[in-house]
TrEMBL record:
UniProt organism field: Paramormyrops kingsleyae
Gene Ontology terms: cellular component: plasma membrane; side of membrane
Gene3D superfamilies documented for this protein: Alpha carbonic anhydrase
Domain of life: Eukaryota
Alpha-carbonic anhydrase domain segment(s): 20-282
Main location: membrane
UniProt-listed Enzyme Commission number(s): 4.2.1.1
Family according to the record: Belongs to the alpha-carbonic anhydrase family.
Chain's role: Catalyzes the reversible hydration of carbon dioxide into bicarbonate and protons and thus is essential to maintaining intracellular and extracellular pH. May stimulate the sodium/bicarbonate transporter activity of SLC4A4 that acts in pH homeostasis. It is essential for acid overload removal from the retina and retina epithelium, and acid release in the choriocapillaris in the choroid. Reversible hydration of carbon dioxide.
Pfam families, sorted: Carb_anhydrase
Molecular function (Gene Ontology), one example: carbonate dehydratase activity
Membrane topology: Lipid-anchor; GPI-anchor
Name of this chain's protein: Carbonic anhydrase
Length: 307
């Protein structure tokens, strides 16, 4: 009886520990009771200990080329709308109520955009979630889409391919990226956790690299990178990067966590690949340019013969 009572007590102790809100290591302090990454897997309904977790380190020489990974079709990405942008206490999140869509690139159906958010380091130090051959970029953009047939994220999370997330890396540039001016000015108004404001007029296309540069990407099956880490994401991580200046990057580090400390290092560390494979799109760049060179030589021979 005593032992039973004790185990009940232990269970309730563990429960109370692991039901505390999740947080990043950068948010933990001596006084906080939040659940850091080490214990995300102990939270209720957690899949954070699964075998198909995200993010991962992409080892390019181990990726397998798949010619069926054609360019992703971006539908209504050019439509201009006003956006609600919010300091979620974990990131900056922009909700997308207007339903731009993506298809193609081996996605089985249309997926509708629902929100985008970012992960960063501190004042431009490394902060992306995915890494490529061990390189971590200063920031990463995630545009979250759900299968068109679903009306909520919760519904999509029960489907192993319910979500399609497009991931983009940022790379430090000397000049400011003018496309990010609307976001920069909004950040000043959402310093505190929970604050939100409106971006009057912006397109989704303006926050990503030009569409013609998006043919090269990586594809793998993974998870959400925050609890409950549901394994229901078809990941598409693009090679082409978004330029951003150090001063623009630093503006993200001025935001605050719930406790008032700087909202920095809001990324999850890379997870084991286990038995998964990472695929890469399109034609091999080296082979493509070699073929182009051969074609050019052929044309000039033909021309010189005919002339
Ligand atoms: C957390 O879960 C792991 C297994 O996933 C277990 O080994 C560990 O004891 C748990 N820790 C706590 C504090 O519940
Ligand atoms: C935005 O903030 C206002 C308070 O300033 C609040 O009433 C509203 O619910 C918030 N909206 C969103 C979408 O968070
Ligand atoms: C939004 O911007 C686009 C071009 O970027 C412009 O054509 C359109 O008139 C603007 N709409 C509003 C409501 O300001
Ligand atoms: Zn994310």
């Amino acid at each position: 009886m005593k032992a039973h009572f004790f185990s009940l007590l232990l269970a309730s102790f563990l429960k109370s520990r692991t039901d505390a809100a999740w947080c990043y290591n950068s948010e933990m302090s001596c006084t906080s009771t939040c659940t850091g990454p080490e214990f995300w897997s102990n939270m209720s309904n957690s899949e954070c200990n699964g075998l198909s977790q995200s993010p991962i380190n992409i080892v390019t020489r181990k990726t397998e080329q798949d010619p069926d990974l054609t360019p992703i079709q971006l539908i209504k990405y050019q439509e201009s709308h006003s956006w609600n942008i919010r300091n979620s206490g974990k990131s900056v999140q922009v909700n997308i109520p207007h339903g731009p869509l993506i298809s193609g690139g081996k996605l089985k159906t249309f997926y509708r955009a629902v929100q985008f958010h970012l992960h960063w380091g501190k004042n431009g130090s490394p902060g992306s979630e995915h890494t490529v051959d061990g390189e971590q970029y200063p920031m990463e953009l995630h545009i979250v889409h759900i299968k068109q047939q679903y009306t909520s994220l919760a519904e999509a999370l029960r489907d192993p391919t319910g979500l399609a997330v497009l991931g983009f890396f940022y790379e430090m540039s000397v000049n400011n990226n003018r496309n990010y001016d609307p976001i920069s000015s909004a950040l000043n108004k959402i310093i505190e956790t929970g604050a939100n404001t409106t971006i009057p007029n912006m397109t989704l296309a303006s926050v990503i690299p030009p569409q013609e540069t998006l043919t090269n990407y990586f594809r793998y099956q993974g998870s959400l990178t925050t609890p409950n880490c549901a394994e229901s994401v078809v990941w598409t991580v693009f090679e082409s990067t978004i330029p951003i200046s150090i001063s623009q990057l630093s503006e993200f580090s001025k935001l605050k966590f719930q406790d008032g400390n700087p909202l920095t290092y809001n990324y999850r560390s890379v997870q084991p690949l286990n038995s998964r494979k990472v695929y890469r799109s399109g034609s091999d760049a080296v082979l493509a340019s070699a073929a182009l060179l051969a074609a050019t030589v052929l044309v000039s021979i033909t021309l010189s013969q005919s002339g």
